[in-house]
Amino acid sequence: MASMQSTTCEQPKGLSSPPSDSFVFTNVLEANNDGAAALFRRIEQLAIDRGAGFFPVWLTCDAKTLRERKDSPDRRARLKDIDVTNIARYLEDFEVLEVPHANALTLDTSEEGSEEIARRIIGHIQRAQSA
Question: What is the per-residue pLDDT for 58?
Answer without folding.
Answer: 96
